[in-house]
Structure formats: C-alpha cells, structure tokens
Amino acid sequence: MTRTRLNIFIEPDHAKRLDQLAAHKGVSKSAVIAAALASFLSPDAADQREAAMGKRLDRLSRQFDRLERDQGILIETVALYIRYFLMVSVPVPEGQQDAARAQGRARYGQFIEQLARHIQRGRSLVREVHEEVAQDDLTSQATTPEQKEGETSNEPQA
C-alpha cells in the first residue's frame, strides 16, 4: 500500500497532545492522525456527530424546562408573599418611621447574612424544606390508623 506524504501545520498544543497520545498508545503520530482522519471522513461520522448533538440539545432542553418551572415557582412565591405582606402590614405612624427604618435595615442585614450562609453551604433552603416535608409525609404514612388513634386517645393502651 502506498501512502501520500503531507506536510501540515498544527497548533503547538495539538502537537503536544498528539505526541502524548502516540506515546501513550505506543503508535506513531502518523497512525493517530490516520485513524482520526478516517473517523472524521467516515460516512457514520456525521451521524455520530448529529446523535451527540441531539443528546446535548435534549439535555439542554430539559435543563431549560426545569429553569423555566423553577422561575415560575419563584415568581408565584414572591407574588404571594408580597400580597400577604401588604395585606397584613400595618402602616407605621409618622413618629415611629425612623425606628422602623432602622429595624428594617437591621433585619435586611440579617437576611443578607443568612442568604450568604445558605449560598456558601451550597444547599437550597427550598430543597431543605422540601426534604423535611417529604420526610414528614413518609413518617405520617408509616403510622397506621390504629397508631394514630392510640396517639390521640387519652386511654392507656394494653
């Protein structure tokens, strides 16, 4: 079999990686390049790249859907909180507004500190609450109706 000699120019980083791969595999650099070129020119290569791209797009689409869902939950949560806060908040009398502002600044500072702690821990408060609720649900489901009656009854059990 005759081979054609080519002189090519590649980036220094690629040359270094090619040297390392050839040494690791115990083959010549020409053999590594020939295999890569054969793979790239193969009729299946386009299908393989398209399949890989499809998988990536599917994964990104699922991530986007989760983000969109979470954003919707966040918007609804904030809206409900604001409505509740505005409904139950009592207007502050004129003479007490400075004290209320100072207290608000202190509470906001505490809020920011607590938020920073949660972010540094890498755990979501929403996830923690969700896990606590799920744990409570599992605990309540594990309790049989007879056990529930015994818990609420003041009669001693035999």
From TrEMBL:
Gene3D superfamilies the UniProt entry points to: Met repressor-like (1.10.1220.10)
Region (Disordered): 130-158
SUPFAM superfamilies referenced in this protein's UniProt entry, alphabetically: Ribbon-helix-helix
Lineage top rank: taxon: Bacteria
GO BP: any one term: regulation of DNA-templated transcription
Name used for this protein in its record: CopG family transcriptional regulator
Organism from which the protein derives: Acidovorax carolinensis
